[in-house]
Amino acid sequence: MQLSKSEEELMNVLWKQKKAFMKDLLDAYDDPKPATTTIATLLKRMTDKGFIGYENLGRLREYYPLVKKKDYFSKHVNGLIKNFFNDSASQFASFFTQETALTKEELEDLKALIEKEIKNR
């Protein structure tokens, strides 16, 4: 299951804070801040999807992620590769290196990461 763009934005706040009350989540947004009801709706949807949980502390709820950021984005990237690049990591890598504004230094860094991973396998 996937998050909407608004849900992803809120999830990033929660991943960063690890645990947060509604007020903490609202405070993380720049002005103009979203309405409390908007955040409450997003939290409900994200809870229903199984991305976040909460603990009742008196009348307040403390929210926390149930899904790790790395796991979510790994699944997301693998879905992109499958759906847009014929399940070919090579096609994805070709697109990524040619269609993004990576510097020569960034490409060298990627090359070093790939070579390190090859040695580890």
Q: Could you describe the 3D structure shown?
A:
The protein is mainly alpha-helical. The protein has 2 domains: 5-65, Winged helix-like DNA-binding domain superfamily/Winged helix DNA-binding domain (Arc Repressor Mutant, subunit A); 69-120. It contains 6 helices and 3 strands. A 3-stranded antiparallel beta sheet has the order 1-3-2. It is elongated and about 55 Å long. The two termini are 30 Å apart.
Task: Please give a handful of descriptors for the protein shown.
121 residues; mainly alpha; Arc Repressor Mutant, subunit A; 2 domains; 3-stranded antiparallel β-sheet; 6 helices; 12% strand; elongated
Please render the helix and strand layout as text.
Layout: H1 5-17, E1 20-21, H2 22-27, H3 36-48, E2 52-57, E3 60-65, H4 69-84, H5 89-99, H6 104-120
In the CATH hierarchy, what is the superfamily of the largest domain? Answer: Winged helix-like DNA-binding domain superfamily/Winged helix DNA-binding domain
CATH architecture of the largest domain: Orthogonal Bundle
Low-confidence stretches: none
Residues in helices, as a percent range: 55-70%
Strand segment count: 3
Pairing-aware structural class of the strands and helices? mainly alpha
Work out the count of structural domains. 2
So how many helices? 6
